[in-house]
Amino acid sequence: MLHLRVVSPAQTTPQVLRLLEAEAGVAHLVLHRGAAVRPAGDVVEADVARECADALLSDLRTLDLDHDGALTLESLDTVLSDSADRAEEAAPGEGSDAVLWDELIARTGEESRLSFSFQAFLTIACLLAAIGAITDSAVLVVGAMVLGPEFGPLAAVAAGLVLRRRDLVRRGGTALAVGFPLGMAITAAATVLFDATGLLVSADLDGLDEVAFIYQVGPFSLIVALLAGVAGTLALTSAKSGSLVGVFISVTTVPAAAFASVAAVEGRWSEAGLSALQLLVNLVGIVVAAAGTLLVARWTGARRDRGRELSAG
């Protein structure tokens, strides 16, 4: 269940109440008249089944409440109520399959910003992956994969393409286009330092059995990227964010970027090129699969909404 709070101008409140009362997936409807101070108005609260929340938000936005008032949603971990149970049973579909598009836009928009923290995490992940490759440590490489923050911008690009939001595409694309080259440049500089201090010699890269997958590009590279894109998008849209860790471990983006820098500094151009290709295949595959998953979700959601309107009529 989700908790919905609406700040509504007094003249709009009757329409808000009618919308909420007509929705079978709503429970615990509460009205606080005159409780809102800025903006002034009434406060309406309700618990809403996740599967009907997106359509309900869309209906409420037609009343211009996102401009004249406010609409907020928060997840409820525990709800002990027969009324809530009945509302969830009456709502069409499954809550875990429902996509809240406004929530998706907010999450991807925030996580795709080219911020200091984003660049710091990406750079540290690249450095860890480089050290993991140099020392042939799969554990360090996997740790770098978990640390990498690149799925946020990738998801933003996919969402922007599906929703035709140029701002999301631009923001996510900028984070990737600036973040990876800068992280790779710093990793290359660190590799030069390792060379100068004797911590690395080119021969160390000859027998990397544990991490050879970084630059071994093949059909499974694309297949894994596509599967990761689908899984990551499902985890993002269904609020099962814990599953994203598995997605991060499965894709070879950060390790490929890091090893491309190390190999280039050491003059191993074939391995550097293959690593760069691995990075490109993974980035493109994730975006394509994520966009396809969102398109399917949008289509099924539209069908569910049409069925809801027909049953209400």
From TrEMBL:
The portions of this protein that span the membrane are: 114-134, 140-163, 175-194, 214-237, 244-265, 277-297
- Tell me the InterPro entries matching this sequence: DUF389
Record keywords: Membrane, Transmembrane, Transmembrane helix
Q: Which PANTHER family match?
A: AT15442P-RELATED
Protein name per the record: Uncharacterized hydrophobic domain-containing protein
Q: Which organism is it from?
A: Pseudonocardia oroxyli
Task: Cite the source lineage.
Answer: Bacteria, Bacillati, Actinomycetota, Actinomycetes, Pseudonocardiales
